[in-house]
Task: structure prediction
Amino acid sequence: MTIFTTLILTSTPALLSAAETVGEKVEEKANDAKRATKRGMNRVEEKICEATDKNCLDEKLKNRAEETKDIIKDKAKEGKNVLDND
Result:
């Protein structure tokens, strides 16, 4: 690879993040906070369930699947916002 190609490939992420608007950055932080809150609530519910019932694996799996779905949905929207700004 040439130095020019390496420079372009390493600077591309910085260019993409610079294209985000202030509103999109705020939305991204809000999504992160919302996911963190849901995750914390899920962990509390799981601890309560474990303390009272040892058959809580289904609830844990459901929570992890929902958290993963939320992350994918939010990141896809953030990627769309970056592409829309181009």
Notes: The longest helix spans residues 22-52. The chain has one domain: 3-84. The mean pLDDT is 79. The CA atoms of residues 12 and 18 lie 10 Å apart.
